Amino acid sequence: MPAVGVIAIGQFACSFVTISQFGLGVVSISQLTIAGLALAQLAVAYALVAQIGLYVGAGYGQTVLSVAEVIALLGSG
Fold it and tell me: pTM of this prediction?
């Protein structure tokens, strides 16, 4: 059963603010997440700090790519 609410903490969480292993939220601290703003190991977000990530606006981390970079890579192949 996922944790839900304004602030959700749990293994699976869906909320405005999430702290979880697998999260979906506006602000998320997770191992694996889809979010607006993310701090994660693996993330897809508008803005993120991640080990591996895909971002729209701003991203920092070990292996992060913007959506524009991915589209360019797929288009040049």
Answer: 0.90
